[in-house]
Amino acid sequence: xxxxxxxxxxxxxxxxxxxxxxxxxxxxxxxxxxxxxxxxxxxxxxxxxxxxxxxxxxxxxxxxxxxxxxxxxxxxxxxxxxxxxxxxxxxxxxxxxxxxxxxxxxxxxxxxxxxxxxxxxxxxxxx
Length: 127
Description:
Mean pLDDT is 85; it is low at 1-6. This protein has helices at residues 10-23, 62-76; strands at 28-35, 40-46, 51-58, 87-88, 97-101, 104-112. The protein contains two helices and six strands; from the N terminus they run H-E-E-E-H-E-E-E. Strands 1, 2, 3, 4, 5 and 6 form a six-stranded antiparallel β-sheet that branches. By secondary structure, the protein is α+β, with helices and mostly antiparallel strands.
């Protein structure tokens, strides 16, 4: 994947919207890029009034993603006493999906939205 691949912008937001509509049976109203260091994070607002977090990662990060998924699935089976993200499966039950933009492939995972201040809206934050 080239450094500019999946670099955001209107073209990626349109393709991601189409992907989410097809793979997650969502009716996406708005896609807002939130930034990210390893993956690209998007706030997804749907016509049903539900908000999600979509994470787009390079395809080569599959092992790391599967490790993260295993942790989130494990934590979802416990009462941690705090709000935590949960994985929203695809319409056919997968924990993530493959996503393509031009010649580049990435992995998309969708999570429930946790209310709060988005880091991108803070003037500064720790590394």
